[in-house]
Amino acid sequence: MTSPVPEQHDGSSATARRVAALVMVLQALVLLGYFAFFVYEIVQGAADGMALAGTLSGLILIFSILSGVLGQGWLRGARWPRTPTILWNVLLLPVAWSLHDAGHSPLGIGVGVLALAGILAAAMAGAGDTRRDDDTRRDGADEVS
Fold this sequence. Notes:
This protein has one domain (12-126). It has helices at 11-44, 50-75, 82-101, 105-127, 133-138. The protein has five helices and no strands. The protein is an all-alpha fold.
């Protein structure tokens, strides 16, 4: 049995990885706060439809957990969070625009800036990686245990 080979990152790639992790953890915490607010609304009876509120709160909790997992992946030096981070943050851009159109421009700008930071950081974090994931897995594959 071989131990995994630690990845080497240059300085800019390591900084981009930390920024990507920070963006994803921040998004996870915001979503967790939004989940808590939804649960509070349900408990107080202020939610319009209990089934819809329950479904939305469950979905928000799932997205919060998954964003946290992506942040943890970045912090651990994995490369797999790159594509989901970019995809998630691209999907946040229409959300930012909708918030702006709905008259919540400061919130929309905040979501948009955070999403763009996540996209750029994830793209830059992967730019310096020259080894593919399957190359990393094959390291030591020829060794006999």
